[in-house]
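Sequence design from tokenized structure. All designs in this work follow the same two-part layout: the structure record, then the generated sequence. An example of the structure record is given first.
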């Protein structure tokens, strides 16, 4: 029976003895054993599996398959005699804290605001629940967190109870159950009744503390990230280290980091604007210099490691300065060639002639119209050769 498994009989059992009743290798080549009884919790109900050892061989995964619990091993067990299992208690207790904290926080949202939880994920660093609402206020988050920590601080008992489907109406369940047999309820008296097959401590005080850390929108739902117990201290330690490092980098006290960052961002934005203006001035100067060295009504130039965006700006500046010229520009970037061709308002030649002629030779792609085209492709020739080819395609 499900209810006779050791992790249900005594959630605090760290070691146990059992017999190997079967072993095998799954479709992924992973060796496993099946025991006549086990304290290893298999993945299920949003809670990850336990890890540990069986006769010193590491247990790396635990899954329930067709009613049997498979213990996947980092090696093989050849003995058919009695073996000793030991679970990783630190991992188990952490999962107990996080899972029970989820029950309490979920119940707090229901009790205070009637907001249901539609999914739950227990990750390595954070836990998350998805609330069945499109938005939640900071006041609601603070109120739910406060109530959850009050329940934790009161150190209420946590009870588990196996019931039949006929007995369910006796309990005020938080949500409808999806199972009809082997029903196990986790009960926090006068606060929460919920069907759950996970592992939980015997009292809420063992959760220690619950802290909501962030929220995000997820497909018309709100995902709430939080942590419980020792994970709260781990998060505090990481954030404190980051704050201390930022304080040193900014030469500011920790309580002045926010103001220092705002000043730095303001200065950064100002420098960006100044730099952009300087770039525009340089491009304008470069355009005039290229015009001074034009060959007839053709202005052409090749460059190395220059973005196509700069080529576009430069070409537009050239034809704006002199509407009777054609600008042909090429850039050689790593293993690619990129080009731009632009005409002034007084020129009748279509620039599509350029792209139509050169793109197939570059195995490239491009686009544009009669007045302006751009494109790029493989470096099948030198930049100078491409530039000459572009010039030869234009009739003027």
């Amino acid at each position: 029976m499900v209810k006779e498994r050791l992790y249900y009989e005594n959630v605090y059992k760290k070691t146990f003895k059992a017999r190997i009743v079967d072993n095998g290798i799954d479709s992924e080549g992973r060796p496993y054993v099946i025991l006549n009884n086990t304290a290893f919790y298999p993945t299920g109900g949003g809670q990850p599996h336990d890890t540990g050892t069986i006769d010193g061989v590491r247990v790396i995964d635990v899954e329930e398959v067709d009613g049997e619990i498979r213990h996947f091993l980092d090696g093989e067990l050849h003995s058919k005699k009695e073996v000793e299992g030991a679970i990783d208690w630190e991992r188990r207790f952490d999962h107990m804290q996080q899972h029970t904290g989820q029950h309490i926080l979920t119940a707090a949202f229901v009790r205070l605001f009637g907001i249901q939880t539609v999914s739950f994920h227990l990750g390595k660093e954070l836990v998350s629940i998805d609330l069945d609402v499109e938005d939640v206020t900071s006041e609601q988050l603070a109120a739910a967190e406060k109530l959850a920590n009050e329940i934790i601080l009161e150190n209420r008992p946590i009870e588990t109870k196996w019931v039949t489907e006929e007995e369910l109406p006796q309990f005020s369940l938080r949500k409808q159950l999806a199972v009809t047999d082997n029903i196990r309820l986790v009960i926090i008296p006068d606060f929460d009744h919920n069907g759950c097959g996970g592992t939980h401590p015997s009292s809420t005080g063992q959760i220690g503390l619950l802290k909501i850390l962030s929220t995000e929108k997820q497909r018309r739902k709100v995902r709430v990230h939080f942590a419980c117990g020792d994970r709260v201290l781990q998060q505090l330690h990481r954030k404190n280290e980051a704050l201390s490092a930022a304080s040193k980098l900014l030469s500011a006290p920790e309580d002045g980091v926010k103001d220092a960052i705002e000043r730095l961002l303001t200065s950064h934005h100002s420098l960006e604007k100044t730099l952009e203006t300087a770039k525009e001035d340089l491009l304008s100067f470069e355009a005039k210099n290229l015009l001074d060295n034009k060959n007839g009504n053709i202005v052409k130039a090749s460059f190395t490691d220059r973005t196509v965006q700069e080529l576009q700006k430069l070409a537009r500046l050239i034809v704006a300065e002199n509407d009777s010229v054609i600008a042909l520009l090429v850039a050689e970037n790593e293993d690619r060639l990129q080009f731009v061709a632009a005409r002034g308002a007084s020129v009748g030649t279509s620039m599509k002639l350029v792209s139509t002629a050169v793109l197939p030779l570059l195995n490239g792609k491009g686009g544009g119209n009669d007045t302006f085209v751009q494109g790029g492709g493989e470096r099948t020739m030198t930049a100078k050769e491409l530039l000459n080819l572009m010039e030869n395609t234009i009739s003027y």
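The two ends are 91 Å apart (CA to CA). We note this feature because it recurs in several other targets discussed in the main text.
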